[in-house]
Specification:
This protein is an alpha+beta fold. The protein has 2 domains: 65 residues, no CATH class; 130 residues, Mannose-Binding Protein A, Chain A. It is 23% helix and 19% strand. It has 5 helices and 13 strands. The chain has a 3-stranded mixed beta sheet, with no helix packed on it. Strands 7-8-12 form a 3-stranded antiparallel beta sheet, with no helix packed on it. A 3-stranded antiparallel beta sheet has the order 9-10-11. β1 and β2 form a beta hairpin. The radius of gyration is 43 Å and the shape is elongated.
Protein backbone atom coordinates (compact mmCIF):
# COMPACT_ATOMS: atom_id res chain seq x y z
CA UNK A 1 0.00 0.00 0.00
CA UNK A 2 1.38 3.42 -1.02
CA UNK A 3 1.63 5.99 1.79
CA UNK A 4 1.01 9.72 1.14
CA UNK A 5 2.86 12.50 2.99
CA UNK A 6 0.73 14.43 5.47
CA UNK A 7 0.17 17.98 3.96
CA UNK A 8 0.84 19.95 7.19
CA UNK A 9 3.99 17.98 7.76
CA UNK A 10 5.11 18.60 4.20
CA UNK A 11 4.63 22.36 4.61
CA UNK A 12 6.59 22.34 7.85
CA UNK A 13 9.47 20.44 6.25
CA UNK A 14 9.49 22.84 3.29
CA UNK A 15 9.49 25.86 5.57
CA UNK A 16 12.37 24.38 7.54
CA UNK A 17 14.38 23.86 4.37
CA UNK A 18 13.68 27.38 3.07
CA UNK A 19 14.43 28.97 6.43
CA UNK A 20 17.95 27.60 6.32
CA UNK A 21 18.82 29.42 3.07
CA UNK A 22 20.79 32.78 3.09
CA UNK A 23 17.88 34.60 1.43
CA UNK A 24 15.48 33.60 4.17
CA UNK A 25 17.92 34.63 6.88
CA UNK A 26 18.34 38.06 5.32
CA UNK A 27 14.59 38.53 5.09
CA UNK A 28 14.11 37.52 8.68
CA UNK A 29 16.81 39.95 9.81
CA UNK A 30 15.14 42.81 7.95
CA UNK A 31 11.76 42.04 9.48
CA UNK A 32 13.23 41.69 12.99
CA UNK A 33 15.05 45.02 12.65
CA UNK A 34 11.92 46.81 11.49
CA UNK A 35 9.86 45.36 14.31
CA UNK A 36 12.52 46.31 16.87
CA UNK A 37 12.69 49.85 15.50
CA UNK A 38 8.94 50.27 15.71
CA UNK A 39 8.63 49.06 19.30
CA UNK A 40 12.04 50.29 20.64
CA UNK A 41 11.57 53.97 19.59
CA UNK A 42 9.01 55.58 21.92
CA UNK A 43 6.49 57.88 20.31
CA UNK A 44 3.64 60.14 21.36
CA UNK A 45 0.86 60.46 18.82
CA UNK A 46 3.33 59.43 16.19
CA UNK A 47 5.98 61.95 17.23
CA UNK A 48 9.37 60.47 18.00
CA UNK A 49 10.85 61.06 21.46
CA UNK A 50 14.57 61.76 21.49
CA UNK A 51 17.38 63.77 23.07
CA UNK A 52 18.40 64.77 19.54
CA UNK A 53 16.38 67.10 17.33
CA UNK A 54 14.34 65.39 14.61
CA UNK A 55 11.79 66.84 12.22
CA UNK A 56 8.36 66.37 13.79
CA UNK A 57 9.92 64.86 16.92
CA UNK A 58 9.62 65.74 20.59
CA UNK A 59 12.86 66.85 22.29
CA UNK A 60 13.45 65.41 25.78
CA UNK A 61 15.03 67.28 28.69
CA UNK A 62 18.36 66.06 30.00
CA UNK A 63 19.10 64.87 33.53
CA UNK A 64 19.68 68.51 34.53
CA UNK A 65 16.10 69.33 33.46
CA UNK A 66 17.40 71.40 30.54
CA UNK A 67 17.51 70.84 26.80
CA UNK A 68 20.86 69.46 25.61
CA UNK A 69 23.16 72.24 24.43
CA UNK A 70 23.80 70.41 21.16
CA UNK A 71 20.07 70.49 20.43
CA UNK A 72 19.85 74.30 20.60
CA UNK A 73 20.85 75.99 17.33
CA UNK A 74 23.36 78.84 17.43
CA UNK A 75 21.82 82.30 17.04
CA UNK A 76 23.48 84.77 14.73
CA UNK A 77 25.12 87.68 16.65
CA UNK A 78 24.02 86.20 19.98
CA UNK A 79 27.08 87.81 21.65
CA UNK A 80 25.91 91.34 20.81
CA UNK A 81 22.90 93.51 21.57
CA UNK A 82 21.94 96.05 18.95
CA UNK A 83 25.32 95.47 17.36
CA UNK A 84 27.13 96.36 20.62
CA UNK A 85 29.41 93.96 22.47
CA UNK A 86 29.21 93.23 26.19
CA UNK A 87 32.25 95.48 26.77
CA UNK A 88 30.58 98.36 24.96
CA UNK A 89 27.44 97.93 27.06
CA UNK A 90 29.31 97.82 30.38
CA UNK A 91 28.92 101.13 32.30
CA UNK A 92 32.27 102.85 32.90
CA UNK A 93 33.65 106.10 34.27
CA UNK A 94 35.27 108.91 32.25
CA UNK A 95 39.05 109.26 32.29
CA UNK A 96 40.66 110.80 35.40
CA UNK A 97 37.69 109.98 37.63
CA UNK A 98 37.25 107.60 40.54
CA UNK A 99 34.79 104.72 40.13
CA UNK A 100 32.35 104.87 43.06
CA UNK A 101 29.98 102.10 42.04
CA UNK A 102 27.11 103.72 40.18
CA UNK A 103 28.74 107.13 39.77
CA UNK A 104 32.13 108.74 39.24
CA UNK A 105 34.02 111.69 40.75
CA UNK A 106 36.86 113.72 39.29
CA UNK A 107 40.14 112.99 41.06
CA UNK A 108 41.38 116.57 40.80
CA UNK A 109 39.73 119.95 41.33
CA UNK A 110 38.37 121.57 38.18
CA UNK A 111 41.14 123.62 36.54
CA UNK A 112 39.72 127.15 36.36
CA UNK A 113 41.56 129.15 33.70
CA UNK A 114 43.01 132.61 34.33
CA UNK A 115 40.32 134.07 32.07
CA UNK A 116 37.58 132.49 34.23
CA UNK A 117 39.20 133.17 37.59
CA UNK A 118 36.66 134.70 39.94
CA UNK A 119 33.71 133.52 37.85
CA UNK A 120 33.54 130.10 39.50
CA UNK A 121 30.65 130.75 41.85
CA UNK A 122 27.84 128.27 42.57
CA UNK A 123 25.98 129.03 39.35
CA UNK A 124 29.06 128.89 37.13
CA UNK A 125 30.25 125.62 38.70
CA UNK A 126 26.81 124.01 38.33
CA UNK A 127 26.57 125.02 34.68
CA UNK A 128 30.14 123.94 33.91
CA UNK A 129 29.56 120.45 35.31
CA UNK A 130 26.28 120.17 33.38
CA UNK A 131 28.04 121.18 30.14
CA UNK A 132 30.55 118.38 30.73
CA UNK A 133 27.70 115.88 31.11
CA UNK A 134 27.95 115.72 34.88
CA UNK A 135 26.72 117.48 38.01
CA UNK A 136 28.04 119.34 41.04
CA UNK A 137 28.25 116.76 43.87
CA UNK A 138 26.61 117.25 47.26
CA UNK A 139 28.49 117.53 50.54
CA UNK A 140 27.40 113.99 51.40
CA UNK A 141 28.70 112.61 48.11
CA UNK A 142 32.06 114.36 48.49
CA UNK A 143 32.53 113.18 52.07
CA UNK A 144 31.45 109.66 51.11
CA UNK A 145 34.16 109.54 48.44
CA UNK A 146 36.99 110.75 50.70
CA UNK A 147 38.63 107.30 50.81
CA UNK A 148 38.89 107.22 47.04
CA UNK A 149 39.44 110.89 46.21
CA UNK A 150 41.65 113.41 48.02
CA UNK A 151 39.45 116.42 48.76
CA UNK A 152 40.68 120.01 48.91
CA UNK A 153 42.83 120.62 51.97
CA UNK A 154 44.81 117.43 51.52
CA UNK A 155 48.57 117.21 50.85
CA UNK A 156 48.12 118.40 47.24
CA UNK A 157 45.98 121.44 48.16
CA UNK A 158 46.73 122.42 51.79
CA UNK A 159 44.52 125.05 53.39
CA UNK A 160 41.84 124.83 50.70
CA UNK A 161 38.21 123.77 50.74
CA UNK A 162 35.79 123.00 47.95
CA UNK A 163 32.24 123.73 46.95
CA UNK A 164 29.33 121.28 47.17
CA UNK A 165 25.80 121.47 45.76
CA UNK A 166 24.31 121.41 49.27
CA UNK A 167 22.62 124.75 50.06
CA UNK A 168 21.71 126.36 53.37
CA UNK A 169 20.14 129.67 54.38
CA UNK A 170 21.43 131.91 57.16
CA UNK A 171 18.05 133.54 57.81
CA UNK A 172 14.46 132.41 58.14
CA UNK A 173 11.74 133.16 55.64
CA UNK A 174 11.19 132.48 51.98
CA UNK A 175 13.20 135.51 50.85
CA UNK A 176 16.31 133.99 52.41
CA UNK A 177 16.45 131.63 49.43
CA UNK A 178 16.12 134.40 46.85
CA UNK A 179 13.25 136.16 45.16
CA UNK A 180 12.07 136.79 41.64
CA UNK A 181 10.90 140.24 42.75
CA UNK A 182 7.77 142.19 41.83
CA UNK A 183 7.76 144.17 38.63
CA UNK A 184 6.17 147.59 38.11
CA UNK A 185 2.50 147.38 37.18
CA UNK A 186 1.84 144.06 38.89
CA UNK A 187 -1.68 143.73 40.22
CA UNK A 188 -3.27 141.73 42.99
CA UNK A 189 -6.03 139.15 42.62
CA UNK A 190 -9.23 141.17 42.19
CA UNK A 191 -11.41 138.12 42.88
CA UNK A 192 -10.08 137.89 46.42
CA UNK A 193 -9.66 141.63 46.97
CA UNK A 194 -5.88 141.32 47.10
CA UNK A 195 -4.21 144.76 46.84
CA UNK A 196 -1.60 145.54 44.24
CA UNK A 197 1.85 144.44 45.43
CA UNK A 198 4.66 146.85 46.08
CA UNK A 199 7.34 146.64 43.38
CA UNK A 200 10.49 144.91 44.60
CA UNK A 201 13.76 144.16 42.83
CA UNK A 202 14.62 140.54 42.07
CA UNK A 203 17.20 138.89 44.30
CA UNK A 204 18.30 135.68 42.53
CA UNK A 205 21.69 135.53 44.29
CA UNK A 206 21.04 136.35 47.95
CA UNK A 207 23.84 136.54 50.47
CA UNK A 208 21.64 134.55 52.81
CA UNK A 209 21.78 131.48 50.54
CA UNK A 210 25.08 129.67 50.87
CA UNK A 211 26.69 126.48 49.61
CA UNK A 212 28.32 124.08 52.08
CA UNK A 213 32.07 123.57 51.66
CA UNK A 214 34.06 120.48 52.60
CA UNK A 215 37.74 119.66 53.06
CA UNK A 216 40.00 116.68 53.56
CA UNK A 217 40.34 116.92 57.37
CA UNK A 218 43.29 114.57 57.80
CA UNK A 219 41.98 112.20 55.19
CA UNK A 220 38.54 111.50 56.64
CA UNK A 221 36.66 114.56 55.41
CA UNK A 222 34.89 117.39 57.20
CA UNK A 223 32.58 120.36 56.79
CA UNK A 224 34.24 123.75 56.31
CA UNK A 225 31.30 126.14 56.63
CA UNK A 226 29.12 127.93 54.11
CA UNK A 227 29.82 130.60 51.51
CA UNK A 228 27.39 132.86 49.62
CA UNK A 229 26.37 131.39 46.27
CA UNK A 230 28.06 134.32 44.44
CA UNK A 231 31.47 133.66 46.00
CA UNK A 232 34.03 131.86 43.87
CA UNK A 233 35.41 128.56 45.16
CA UNK A 234 37.21 125.43 44.01
CA UNK A 235 35.00 122.56 42.85
CA UNK A 236 34.97 119.25 41.01
CA UNK A 237 32.33 117.47 38.90
CA UNK A 238 30.64 114.11 39.30
CA UNK A 239 29.15 111.85 36.64
CA UNK A 240 26.72 109.00 36.27
CA UNK A 241 28.37 105.90 34.81
CA UNK A 242 27.68 105.46 31.10
CA UNK A 243 28.43 102.79 28.51
CA UNK A 244 31.14 103.23 25.91
CA UNK A 245 28.45 103.04 23.25
CA UNK A 246 26.50 105.92 24.84
CA UNK A 247 29.64 108.05 25.21
CA UNK A 248 30.55 107.50 21.57
CA UNK A 249 27.02 108.41 20.50
CA UNK A 250 27.09 111.64 22.54
CA UNK A 251 30.48 112.54 21.09
CA UNK A 252 29.15 112.11 17.54
CA UNK A 253 26.17 114.37 18.30
CA UNK A 254 28.48 117.07 19.59
Amino acid sequence: MRKHLNPPLAISILALILASTPLAQAARHTVDHAVHKIFATPKVDGHRLSTKPYAGGILLLGKNKKFPARAIPAVSEADTLGGKTAAELQPTCPANTADLGTWCLEKQLYPVSKADAGKNDFFWASQTCAEKGGFLPSASELLGAVKDVELAGGPATPGQREMSSTLITTEAGSSAAGSEGVSEGSTGDKNTGEPNPIPLPANPEPETTQYVTVFSAAGHGGLAGGEPVKDAQSFRCAYVKTTAATSASNAEEE
